[in-house]
Amino acid sequence: MSVGRKAVAPFAALLLSACAGGVIPPSANGPAPTRPPSGESATRPVPATPRLPVPVTPAVTPAPDASGTAVALGVTRGPDIASLIPSGERSRLALQAFRISCPSLMRRTDQSGLTRGSDWNNACAAASSWPEASASEFFSRYFEPVQIGDGTTFVTGYYEPEISGSRTRQPGYDVPIYRRPTDLIEVDLGQFSDSLKGRNIRGKVNGTKFVPYDDRSQIVTGSLAGRGLELAWAADPIEFFFLQVQGSGRLNLPDGGVMRIGYDGQNGRDYTGIGKLMKDRGLIKAGSMQDIMQYLRANPVEGAAIMNENKSFVFFRELTGAGPLGALGIPVTPEATVAADPKYIPLGAPVLLSLDRAEPAGVWIAQDTGGAIKGANRFDSFWGAGARARGIAGGMSARGSALVLLPIGSAARLARP
User: Fold this and answer.
1) Which tens digit of pLDDT belongs to each residue from 297-343?
2) E strand or H helix at 307, and its extent?
3) Domain ranges of the chain
4) Single pTM value for the model
5) How many CB atoms lie within 10 A of CB 209?
6) What share of the chain is helix, strand, coil (3-state, %, to 5)?
7) CB 44 within 8 A of CB 351
8) The domain over range 1-172+240-417 is classified in CATH as 2.40.40.10
């Protein structure tokens, strides 16, 4: 997913899939890049810690997904969760993340159809003073689980990259990081036709016509140069490409300082996952971040052309407060935030993941969205910044079951008999 975000995007998923995404094949451990990435030490994916997931509950009456929401897909009551919620750091962090989500939960319209704003009042009131040492008890006391559809889940990971950068152009820093151009226009098509409600396009005016905005290849070859749009300069075009996939990151400056940048728009062109292109062409095998980087560095001319096949280009702004920000407009929490599809999961709601990999199992809070995070029970877990986060997120691929935790009493309106 949003970091501020397009939303903060899933790392492995966005590299391997197009925006609409599908189920992504599991990543395998790949070799380290041929040289350390700028700003971060080279990192292999963190080896998976196996775990046996809790089986899903058989859905009583599968429903056709007519409207593309959780309610249309079908809601089944889940099992008792008191023994399923682990105590410890994951639940403690989830309680912290839930607290800061509460104002949005109580005022937002829930696209999934699962809850009303008032449903969250009691849980949010209790969360404000609940002791973090007993966070798992909070979730088991104030929530009841429901399963959306068949409950089968797939989880990837994302993180906040750190790369070498400079506020000014100087030797070794010559990759421009652009602000959002003033001539980039977003059009709400729903204003022109009811059949197009919810659909937006981006482009620019050329004479009397509205045309697509410059694509990646045009921008990297200088179509925006000389307009004063340079926010900063990166040292490495490959690292900057991956930062664009994530939607935000940190620039490690030559003087030892740090500049944080966040998503401020995109050129409107469709996203193309270069990992899938490279796998389909037999250029890489496993498709991990490390495999992709190694090929791009070893084949700079071909690599630049492959990166340009992803016509999407992301613009940035400097972040000076807390962050990175998720789709709720609040900071996402490392190892507690997941990106989800708001048509199936209320943004701000807890989800309980039981997976075949131990690291992401437990309670998370759906505080973000992502271009490839579409459909029920599809999640992208946020791991923070630094080498550990990069290692886990770059190789994250976990499967199992998911339960959405709804405030006590709200499931009675939804669950099938």
Assistant:
1) 999 999 999 999 999 999 999 988 777 888 888 889 999 999 999 99
2) helix 300-309
3) 1-172+240-417
4) 0.74
5) 8
6) 25, 25, 50
7) no
8) yes
